[in-house]
Specification:
Chain A folds into 2 domains: about 1-45; about 105-300, no CATH class. Chain A has helices at about 5-45, 50-55, 60-75, 90-110, 115-125, 125-130, 135-165, 175-205, 210-225, 240-245, 255-260, 265-300. Helices cover about 75% and strands about 0% of the residues of chain A. By secondary structure, chain A is mainly α. The longest helix of chain A is centred in the first third of the chain and has 44 residues, at about 5-45. In chain A, helix 5 packs parallel to helix 8 (about 175-205). The relative contact order of chain A is 0.11. Chain B is an alpha/beta fold. Among the domains of chain B are: about 5-100 and about 175-245, P-loop containing nucleotide triphosphate hydrolases (Rossmann fold, 3-Layer(aba) Sandwich), CATH 3.40.50; about 250-310, Alpha-Beta Plaits (2-Layer Sandwich). In chain B, about 35% of the residues lie in helices and about 25% in strands. In chain B, a hairpin with a 2-residue loop joins strand 11 and strand 12. In chain B, helix 9 packs across helix 11 (about 315-325). Chain B is globular and about 75 Å long. Classes of the chains: A mainly alpha, B alpha/beta. At the A-B interface, helix 1, helix 6 and helix 12 of A face helix 2, helix 3, strand 5 and helix 4 of B.
């Protein structure tokens, strides 16, 4: 092929790409995501027995956690634990807080995500995403949405039951509509941030074949600094300020704090803005790490 | 017009040199030694549309690396290649929609779901319209006789059935170029035969271009007119399968069926005796002496039947590989450590 002919065909191809983009790319993109979601959902259902059992088992720690806090408050005020206060938290507040972080973590935790990415890199399943016209991260994101949808389908009933049984712990009652909206937004964003954050950890697998120890360190920090173990506002300074600026608090503490009305007004808007910012940050990071990793993979391994 | 064009393509990997012993392992934590291994060394090749080309070579010879380069999974260290005018490692979506890669040891189907679910996903990501999807699917499933298996979870299929499904998944978007990396690995003879028949038929009918690597001589003999022998990362031979024997084997195998009562004594004069199972005797004879030897034998012995054959292909190729590794045995041999001919004769 002469150079001009090659150029012409190149230009023609570009033109095709352009019209394709403007015409139906968006719609096709949506359809593709929907199809990934649908298939990942039916895959989940293939293991429904194990899945239902696993989901229900995750409610067991609630009981031990409630007993633990009861013991702590009892030691604070042996005569009347219900009157005891821990940095402003009563026993009821603490249980309410704990239950809300359960909801938050149901959105933001990504069991198996990092390790499955590292495994895909190690065993070569990644090739599929280089050869077929589908993006790995998009694919994983929508599969994860499917996981969460499946999880909530099963978990709604026990969640409702637990909240019903523990309704007396929510001394403030239901928050107003605005707060409720912010709560839902914080949950959805914490899902996205959690996803991209753990995707970044998994993508480190391009450089280290095994990411489980890295993940372990992350989980350890997350356990304490996300607010999963205790409310972050009981931490003394200067740790409190450090934790406040870290993104990890959005995974568990923040949604619960919004629901309980601890964050409101301008601070709420700032925090939501920060959460959007962190989500974008980890999204961009995951793209950058993926591109870099692919370069390395294609250059050295494959 | 050439559909696949490869010019001076080279790929070297950097591998970590692990030394033996705990002390060395500890030192390896700080200071690592790497070694470059040339998987593919300056390969050049042209493939015309509609060709069915086999890559033949020992393990680690660079066959799979070449297919990976052409599928865009890895970047070359140097050199150029285009497939249908695309540079593979740019990985444009346009290119990805026009070729397919099937690896016999990897599966792309969803393990726990029926194959048809995976096919639907492919329909979406390859943007196949509903009509042609249905048509292609009907055609492929009836050709491969797997229609009734479409609804069964992939994990419950046999290896052969799964391979058929893999092929369907790869062909749904009607790729113009197909790369097959050991598509029949681990399959039994019947399943191998079925896949071969299918590939042969499909390639003829659609006129698509196929590059195949395989260890099974039968695959190659059944499918490919053109064979490219790769060893030590270089092309050692490019031509017809039978041409390999002509260029690399100087012997013929003569098998005699001796008449009753005829002794075999003295036959060793004509060549190295290979097998004696009276009344049949086989021996190896240099090609240029065949006619002279036969004339003498017919004169001196009572013969019921004669056959003159080429030595088995596997043997010739094993010889060819051996020859290559002896020639260049002092080079970086890491990639060639498995390059014993035994890998080949196991067909």
């Amino acid at each position: 092929m002469s150079e001009t002919a090659a150029n012409e065909s190149f230009i023609r191809d570009e033109a095709i790409n352009d019209t394709e983009w403007s015409r139906s790319n968006f719609l096709d993109g949506v359809k593709t995501r929907w199809m990934i979601l649908r298939i990942a959902l039916s895959e989940r259902l293939a293991y429904r027995g194990d899945f239902v059992l696993g989901t229900l088992m995750r409610f067991l720690p609630i009981i031990t956690q409630i007993f633990l806090w009861w013991a702590i408050f009892q030691s604070l005020n042996p005569d009347d634990p219900n009157e005891a206060r821990l940095k402003g938290y009563s026993f009821h507040d603490m249980v309410a807080y704990y239950l809300l972080t359960m909801v938050g973590r149901a959105f933001s935790s990504m069991p198996g995500l990092s390790s499955s990415i590292a495994l895909k890199i190690r065993d070569g399943e990644l090739k599929k995403f280089l050869v077929q016209p589908v993006d790995l991260i998009t694919f994983l994101f929508w599969s994860r949405v499917a996981h969460k949808v499946a999880y909530y389908t099963i978990a709604t009933i026990p969640f409702a039951l637990v909240f019903y049984l523990c309704r007396s712990y929510f001394t403030l009652g239901w928050p107003d509509a605005w707060t409720m909206g912010a709560f839902v937004a914080s949950l959805l964003l914490s899902f996205a941030m959690g996803f991209y954050l753990e995707a970044c950890i998994g993508l480190v697998g391009f450089w280290m074949l095994e990411v489980s120890s890295l993940l372990f360190v992350y989980m350890l920090f997350q356990f304490f600094l996300s607010g999963h173990m205790f409310p972050l506002d009981i931490i003394p300074e200067p740790f409190r300020t450090v934790v406040e600026v870290l993104p990890i608090k959005y995974l568990a503490y923040f949604p619960a704090a919004v629901f309980l009305g601890k964050v409101h007004g301008t601070q709420l808007l700032i925090d939501l803005g920060m959460l959007v910012g962190w989500t974008l940050f980890f999204f961009i990071m995951s793209q950058v790490i993926y591109r870099r990793g692919l370069k390395r993979y294609s250059g050295y391994g494959g | 017009m050439t559909i696949i064009q490869i010019d001076q393509l080279a790929k070297s990997y950097r591998v970590y040199q692990k030394k033996e012993g705990l002390g060395a392992a500890m030192r390896g934590l700080w200071h690592r030694e790497y070694k470059d291994v040339d998987a593919v060394k300056n390969i050049s090749l042209r493939v015309e549309p509609g060709e069915f080309v086999a890559f033949l070579g020992p393990n680690g010879a660079g066959k799979t690396t070449t297919l990976k380069l052409l599928s865009g999974v890895i970047y070359p260290t140097s050199g150029k290649a285009t497939v249908m005018g695309f540079v593979p490692w740019e990985r444009s979506l346009e290119y990805r929609r026009r070729f397919a890669l099937v690896m016999g040891q990897k599966n792309q189907l969803w393990w726990d779901l029926p194959a048809q679910e995976s096919f639907r996903l492919h329909q979406q990501i390859y943007r196949i319209d509903a009509d042609s999807f249905k048509k292609t699917m009907d055609e492929l499933t009836s050709l491969l006789t797997v229609k009734e298996l479409l609804g069964r979870p992939v994990r419950e299929l046999s290896l052969g059935e799964r391979m058929k499904m893999e092929l369907i998944a790869a062909l749904l978007h009607r790729p113009e170029v197909l790369f097959l990396d050991e598509p029949t690995i681990g399959l039994d003879v019947i399943a191998q035969h079925n896949i071969q028949q299918f590939l042969k038929f499909y390639q003829l009918e659609r006129g698509i271009t196929i590059l195949l690597t395989s260890h099974y001589m039968k695959d190659i003999a059944a499918l490919c007119k053109r064979v490219v022998v790769i060893a030590q990362g270089q092309i050692q031979y490019d031509g017809s399968l039978s041409g390999i024997v002509d260029s690399f084997s100087g012997d013929k195998i003569i098998t005699l069926q001796l008449a009753t009562g005829q002794s075999d004594s003295g036959l060793e004069r004509y060549g190295k005796l290979e097998k004696i199972a009276m009344p049949r005797v086989s021996f190896r004879c240099p090609r240029n002496e065949v006619s002279k030897s036969l004339a003498q034998i017919l004169n001196d012995y009572q013969i019921d039947d004669i056959a003159v054959e080429d030595p088995p292909l596997e043997e010739t190729i094993a010889k060819l590989f051996n020859h290559v590794s002896m020639d260049q045995g002092d080079g970086p041999t890491t990639a060639m450590s498995e390059a014993t001919p035994s890998g080949l004769t196991r067909s």
